[in-house]
Amino acid sequence: MLAAITEASRRFSGPPMRSEAIKYALIVAFGCTPAVNALADDSIGVVKTVKGTAHIERAGRTVDVAVGSEIFSNDRIVTGPASSVGITLRDNTLLSEGANSTLELNRFAFNTTTYEGALDASIKRGSLAVVDGKLGKANPDAVHYSTPTTTLGVRGTEFIIEVGGKGESQP
């Protein structure tokens, strides 16, 4: 890649200082692209709707939820009273988390070509409505939803999970 950047910078005529500046600008522009793509590839979905208060617990930090917030594997999404969050995963799975709920997205992988991958999510308390996407329809054995007392296998459908009582205690 450096050879291509050096060649591109030679095409520009002008003082050596300008040529060096262009060379470094090209290195920065093209050299940062893989890093940006790597970060974007880690995103498993995006928040499409938010009502009330909600936050994401991620790597020991708390992030407020807003429309457009990216969702990552191992995120824990927590909603407050009279609140809800709508999430669309990369395979077009739709998740609608209800009020006073805690959802953990333990694992998500999806190959857009083969539709292979895995989805492992836990609803610790509250409610979750699900409309399966491409992964659940093409490979239902790879999709699992858990509650504090049950693990559900999915067979390409729509459903609602409710965890009654206090569910699992918050850490």
List keywords for this structure.
alpha+beta; 2 domains; Jelly Rolls; 12-stranded mixed β-sheet; 12 strands; 4 helices
List the helices and strands and how they pair.
Layout: H1 2-11, H2 16-31, H3 33-42, E1 43-51, E2 54-58, E3 61-64, E4 70-72, E5 75-79, E6 84-89, E7 94-97, E8 102-110, E9 117-131, H4 134-138, E10 143-146, E11 151-153, E12 158-163
Helix pairs in contact: 1-2
Q: What features would you describe in this structure?
A:
Strand 2 and strand 3 (about 60-65) form a beta hairpin. The protein contains 4 helices and 12 strands, in the order αααβββββββββαβββ. The chain is globular. It has about 170 residues and is an alpha+beta fold. Helix 1 packs antiparallel against helix 2 (about 15-30). Helix content is about 25%, strand content about 45%. Strands 1, 2, 3, 4, 5, 6, 7, 8, 9, 10, 11 and 12 form a 12-stranded mixed sheet that branches. It has 2 domains: about 1-30, no CATH class; about 45-165, Sandwich (Jelly Rolls), CATH 2.60.120. The protein has helices at about 1-10, 15-30, 35-40, 135-140; strands at about 45-50, 55-60, 60-65, 70, 75-80, 85-90, 95, 100-110, 115-130, 145, 150-155, 160-165. The longest helix is centred in the N-terminal third of the chain and has 16 residues, at about 15-30. The model is unreliable at about 1-15 and about 20-40 (pLDDT under 50).
